[in-house]
Design goal:
2 domains; 56% helix
Amino acid sequence: MDKRPDFLGGIKAKFSDMTPGQQVIAKYIIDNLADTAFMTIQDLAAGCGVSEASIVRFARLLGFNGFPDMKLEIQEAFRTRVNLVTKLGKKLEKLHGEKPLIQNIIENELQQLNKLLLEPMDETFRQCVKEIAAVNHLIIYGEGSSASLTVLLEFRLRRFKYSILRINENGKDFFEKVVHFPKEAVAIAYGLGRPSEELVIFLQQARKNNCRSILISDSHISSITRLADYVLSANRGSLGIFHSISVPTIISEALIMGVALERREEVLQSLSELEALRSKYGYPKLAGLEREPTEDDEI
């Protein structure tokens, strides 16, 4: 069948004519478009709490031959809503108003951070900390904006005497690094925004090499989350809007501090050794502490 110009609009237009069960499916697809785009019919039926036959009837109600045709349209809607221009455009519209920009941004971020407090992740988080604290080798993956979070983890945890392999590449350079996983390591992956093939391969390689894996993600796509041993939800807001990385940054910092608490004596000893080595060679040399600058210092 011909592709519809507005799949979600078509669902909303027919919503009042749907049965209660079909309305449940419609709401689920609208609210979970990113996840639905990658689901099998079994996953979607389970997520909606209906039978697979109900999913097929829903697809036919919308004019599709069956679920495979509808899934193609869902994926097209997903690609349309998450492209860079649309995401930033919606963010700018949301920020436009009478409030000062910095106040508007802070209030938006606080909303997401408050939602993070409601996530039932306490036990999962504790297990993640224990897994990291129990090893000395880590392999960390993240691309795009997530790359900065991998740098943060590497910088902090390397000071705790961790041996770390960081992967930010994609394509052929990605395979050069992911082919060799450290033994007895924990794999940490950031899956923010559109899921990449490299993310899937990274998690598969972790499992193949018997490495426990932790996925920090703003998506709940079952085909990806089931590949990880632990999933920490970093929900950043509705799909299709440009988001900051404040929520996954908070989760990352919490993991770092959790590991510091778990390995307290070893971490403090490691930092003490670093300070002693710095002092031996006169570091850190901080500007402005030794003397006041003079006119001769000006360029």
